[in-house]
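FYI - complex with flavin-adenine dinucleotide, inputs then prediction.
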Amino acid sequence: MAGPESRPHVLVIGGGIGGFTTALACARRGMSVHVLERAPEIKEIGAGLQLGPNAGRLLGELGVLDSVLRTAVLPERFVILDAYTGREIYQARFGQALAERFGAPYTVMHRADLLDTLLQGSLATGLVTAFTGKEVVGVEQDARGATVTCADGSTHSADVVIGADGLRSAVRREVLDDSEPAVSRYAIYRGPGPRPEGVEDAVTLYAGDGLHLMQYPIQGGELLNRVASFRSDRGAPGSDTWATPEELFEKFADTCDPVREALHHLDLGKRWEQFDRKPMPGWAHGRVALLGDAAHPMRQYLAQGAGQAMEDAVALAAALADSPDDPVTALKEYEGIRFPRAAAVQRNTRFFGEMVHLGGVGAVLRDFAFSSLTADDYSLAEWLYGTGGAPAPQPPARLDFYTEGR
Ligand SMILES: Cc1cc2nc3c(=O)[nH]c(=O)nc-3n(C[C@H](O)[C@H](O)[C@H](O)COP(=O)(O)OP(=O)(O)OC[C@H]3O[C@@H](n4cnc5c(N)ncnc54)[C@H](O)[C@@H]3O)c2cc1C
């Protein structure tokens, strides 16, 4: 590793999974990194997180996979069930077979455990400093560097500024002239709780007409993470009438016993809205660039938002290390590598969500197609988890999943 004096100094805005993976990846390449986080402490909200082998490989490269595996669960399979009958529609073998095929396991974990590992890994390099209570409100740049201003009036300068500040990124507003994030009509209720007897080490998806329930064990298998989602047309997303707990129980009334039982473990006091954005290039702007949800927020259906942020972080660190004296070019190269990939994941995530929520004849045809796949046929996942550059599926152009109200 070259000394920090010959590497760009990096200022990362946002201390989430994307921000600290960036800090770790840059520090491991000898760069000094300063992280500014708005919140009073470095903390993840929500509960469970799935990481595909594409992210697992990167955690290995960054030297923190073993630490993650101390509390993560390695599910044996991914299974899709009919939400109404409980009938199994499809299973993919995860476990050892998937890990061997793609060079890293599929893991599920508590978000807080992952963030803590990334934070500790970053600090252990001796090249990362992190400050909380620093809300960035402005970014400026010139030929020599970039400077951010925080709400408390402090300013911080570096060779490059990376906006890893999430969905409503303040840095994005300085870089891209675009609209508000798109809100979904699908609401989310989450609920990690004690794992009932007999629940297998699996990622389980119950698919229904305009709804789903996803569950998987976390924290060494002691807790079960549950996520229920359904489409509500009662009022505007976020309003008092939209997606109330009463509607949740109504929508799931015909589902099978295990699904209805799971609803009682959800935190009904917190309803989550779901946002994303249509893929939009222009993340790199001189010495400032976007990363993670700030660049490409996506729906959760392929469980890839954090994984894509990690892919960004590693690609960004490599680009900066390759062109230490020309960060502007490095940031352009980073976007050139990452934009097509992240955009494909965003589009396919929307497509997969539509497929999961089919009803009627569409659902019958979907189930027929899925039931003809074998459990160890990973060809459909090659583009997402593999290293061979398999082309991403192209959802039909005439289906614009970014129209209002989906
Ligand atoms: C229900 C649900 C389930 C999901 N499941 C998965 C999954 O299984 N697998 C997966 O890979 N992804 C999943 N995702 C997506 C994943 O959570 C996100 O893509 C990921 O957390 C994005 O990380 P980030 O660091 O880019 O942004 P964030 O996690 O949003 O972090 C941004 C950070 O920036 C800080 N910040 C914001 N503004 C400022 C400012 N002005 N100044 C300073 N700091 C600021 C914030 O406080 C925050 O700490 C899921 C998402 C949802 C909603």
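Residues 74-105+185-273+358-388 form a domain with the D-Amino Acid Oxidase; Chain A, domain 2 fold (CATH 3.30.9.30). The chain has a mean pLDDT of 94.
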